[in-house]
């Protein structure tokens, strides 16, 4: 019997609560979701939106990625709370530092992925997480970046030029009605990275409410191009309904 995949549908995966250890001595709360019975094709390290405005590892696109993509696309999904950020899973140690000390958080996630031999690592940033990606994420382990609603708030021309020089792919998913950066301006700004692809999403806003499926399809097309998209909206097999409590930071 087919089950409709809804917002709180959790498909089968091997899920593990993890702790990331930063170089400045903090412990960060996280989760790794792996395909249930196959090795992952690729790994998503999810960098969440601004925690001072409700961003966390349970932000809805990342929650749905962890609930669905191990089963639907054979992807590993690593999500975590940056320093001082709280979710239902708990609060990471430390305090928000405006994207500065968060460089240690990004490094800790990459070190975890490397130590556990997670394959084909991609950074997937959303809003604040895109600045963390562009400023702190240019690492030899990283295959490329997917940027969801990038505001380019702390990212400078220097960071864009560095990504350009790396040759690593950059894919920017830009809502038509974004609060900070809309498609035409995004194409102008990302021209500094010749290999960057800017994709506009009609009738979409910064928070992608009601549009998570479009974001997940776009991520899968980039990191696992052999997987057909759009992803299925129904599932034949076991599943759970997992209501997540959204915790206010």
Automatic annotation (TrEMBL):
Keywords: Hydrolase
Signal peptide: none
Any GO molecular function: hydrolase activity
Keyword Cytoplasm: no
Protein origin, superkingdom: Bacteria
Protein name in UniProt: Alpha/beta hydrolase
Organism listed in the record: Saccharopolyspora elongata
Phylogenetic placement of the source organism: Bacteria, Bacillati, Actinomycetota, Actinomycetes, Pseudonocardiales
């Amino acid at each position: 019997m087919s089950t409709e995949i809804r917002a709180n549908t959790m498909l089968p995966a091997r899920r593990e609560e993890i702790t990331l250890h930063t170089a400045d001595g903090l412990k960060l709360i996280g989760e790794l979701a792996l395909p249930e019975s196959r090795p992952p094709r690729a790994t998503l390290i999810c960098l969440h939106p601004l925690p001072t405005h409700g961003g966390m590892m349970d932000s809805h696109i990342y929650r749905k990625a962890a609930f669905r993509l191990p089963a639907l696309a054979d992807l590993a999904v690593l999500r975590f709370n940056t320093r001082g950020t709280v979710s239902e899973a708990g609060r990471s140690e430390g305090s928000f530092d405006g994207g500065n000390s968060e460089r240690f958080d990004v490094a800790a996630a990459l070190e975890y992925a490397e130590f556990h031999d997670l394959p084909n690592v991609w950074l997937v940033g959303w809003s604040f997480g895109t600045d963390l990606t562009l400023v702190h994420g240019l690492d030899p382990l990283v295959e490329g970046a997917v940027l969801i609603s990038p505001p380019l708030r702390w990212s400078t021309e220097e960071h864009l030029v560095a990504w350009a020089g790396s040759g690593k792919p950059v894919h920017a998913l830009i809502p038509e009605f974004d609060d900070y950066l809309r498609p035409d301006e995004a194409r102008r700004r990302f021209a500094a990275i010749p290999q960057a692809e800017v994709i506009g999403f009609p009738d979409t806003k910064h928070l992608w409410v009601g549009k998570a499926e479009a974001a997940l399809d776009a991520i899968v097309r980039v990191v696992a191009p052999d997987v057909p998209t759009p992803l299925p909206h129904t599932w034949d097999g076991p599943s759970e309904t997992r209501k997540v409590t959204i915790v206010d930071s």
